[in-house]
Amino acid sequence: MKLDDIVISRAIIENWSKDLVEYLEVDVAIVGGGPAGLTAAYYLAKKGVKAVLYERKLSIGGGMWGGGMMYNKCVFQEASKPILDEFKIRYEEYQPGYFITDSLETVSALCLETIRAGARIFNLISVEDVMIREEGVTGLVLNWSAVDIAKLHVDPLTIRSKYVVDASGHAAEVAKIITRKIGKALFTATGDLMGENPMWAEAGEHAIVENTKEIYSGVYVAGMACNAVFGGPRMGPIFGGMLLSGKKIAELLLAKLKGSSN
Ligand code: 48F
To answer: pTM above 0.85?
Structure first.
């Protein structure tokens, strides 16, 4: 059988468009495909939740690929071991309580298992705005990252979701959009973004999990964005908190979704 270039093009366009349409209305829409966003998507999809994740870049994995200062190893603490096991990520104990992984294996496993659990990941798409109604945030406004990079004047498209997760890392982009659009409305002490504090692994890793919660009606935060929103320390190349935060947000949303379906 001879290969037809047009069939190849049609296969891609039809199937991708079908997916995009299927995910126009979802239970949870996650912004950012770093470790926190991926972990959240995995645990939601595993329980049958319709979860979609948008990643601005070509590659999934956020700040994990380069480990610490491009030494591509990641450190995890004891508490995150069950999640590493869940994703079948191999690790070695470096010293008691410090577990080291290959960052490339870590990102690949997070990505593969999340997709296999049933979450849909769209890369190369940026979240540029949110839909806000009386009840809070009800969806996301999307555009091609290439449109943003080229500064083209092209209007975006929208998707509806019951809940949004800001897993956009240090930038806390969804939180920023909310404050830009409607002022100091976040569920923080000042209503504003509190900003990230200096590097401190021990305190930062605890704060991340503590700060993993709702930040505005319909919007939850996971990963590094938690400390950017609520004012916690950054923690550098220890990644356990990101996985624990992603899992915690999935559990919070599973409880919410269960409550609303009863
Ligand atoms: O930055 P990132 O890895 O966030 P994370 O999951 O993990 C943080 C750690 O990597 C590291 C750290 C550990 O100590 O501090 O920084 O919290 O992943 C965030 C992803 O979100 C994407 C961005 O490209 C990155 O891959 N992203 C950011 N803004 C948008 C976005 C947006 N507006 N639309 C789509 N994707």
So the answer is: yes
